[in-house]
Specification:
Blueprint lengths: L4 E8 L9 E2 L4 H8 L16 E6 L2 E6 L7 E6 L2 H15 L2 E4 L5 E2 L1
Antiparallel strand pairs: 1-2, 1-5, 1-6, 3-4, 4-5, 6-7
Length: about 110
Amino acid sequence: MAKKRQLALFRLNDPDDPGSGYASLGTVREFIDQLAPFNTAPDGSPPRQTGTEVLHGPGIVIEYASNQDEVRQAILTVVDQDVAWPVLSRLCKTLCWKMQDLESGQVFG
């Protein structure tokens, strides 16, 4: 079985300056609404008691802190690379978001 790849999903304050810090990805509602066109959404299960929520999309699972006013970053797990990468490429290009491989540190998007 292929190893699942984990990435951090974020937006920079200044896309031309990697040291500018993280910008908000939106409120929890805005974050979910922005991901909806990419067929990514909650699965309808009741809210978790852990302070994190999960969204499911094509070949991906996204976890984010639901106990904050705004989403600053999320953890994305690629479960099917063939399906996930085209969606992730469009998502990052459309929303001006970035992804960072948690193992290698490489930044995409």
